[in-house]
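User: I'm designing a mutation panel for Ectoine hydroxylase-related dioxygenase (Phytanoyl-CoA dioxygenase family) and want to avoid disrupting the core. Could you give me a predicted structure to guide residue selection? Please restate the sequence first so the numbering is unambiguous.

Assistant: Good idea. Sequence first, for numbering, then the predicted structure tokens:
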Amino acid sequence: MSITTSYARDGYVIFRDVIDADLIAEASEHVAWLEQRHPDVRPEQLGHTFLRDDPFWIRLISDDRLLDIAANFVGPDIALFASHYISKPPFTGQPVLWHQDSAFWPLEPMEVVTLWLAVDHSTPDNGCVRLVPGSHTREIAAMRTNTEVDNVLGQEIAVDVDEADAVDIVLRPGDVEVHHPNIIHGSNANTSPNRRCGLTIRYIPTSTRILGDEQPFPSAFWLRGEKGVNSYQPVPTFDAARHFPFRDAKAWS
């Protein structure tokens, strides 16, 4: 069965050993650096607010190995819509309650794909992604507030989800899980002694319009092919005084 056929049926697919160990090690160090710079921010919330002026982050999300995967699902003209480290610390990492990404996103049309890049080993013990295969074919459900437990989104899907239908997405560092914007997914709390960190990367075809008053969108970057219908943020220039140091930094100077 082809990758795209499997994705169309299940709403997700896994690619193994995509990113090399050295770059993953740098990503892990990058997360630790961000946490030190933003001690008042929970590590599950290291999103574009803290990354938009970060050359290493742009270097990572524009890696050709990731773009080649994204091209299978959105075509050759690729832009970044958003990206977010979700780093669950040992013992206290927050859950992500069941949801569908498309319930949140200002995109027209909803042509987008998420690549979830594992920075750490991701297992049921430390709160790996869980999803319901085939649920991407359902209607987009409403969301409701849930503050009874501390959680990353503060919301959950307003329909019952049968836990028996869910599968655990077990990944090694450098693996990539790809999922559809409509698939029902979430993750449990991390009560283990091991951090669980991943980088979510939301790629769009450049024909998908990012809506909203703020243009260019804070995390919109053109990455490959034709630029299409959106305006984009400028690529940041590396400054050793304020940016995370990394191997390829000179190429971004």
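For picking mutation sites, this is relevant: DSSP finds four helices and 14 strands in the chain. The chain has one domain: 3-236.
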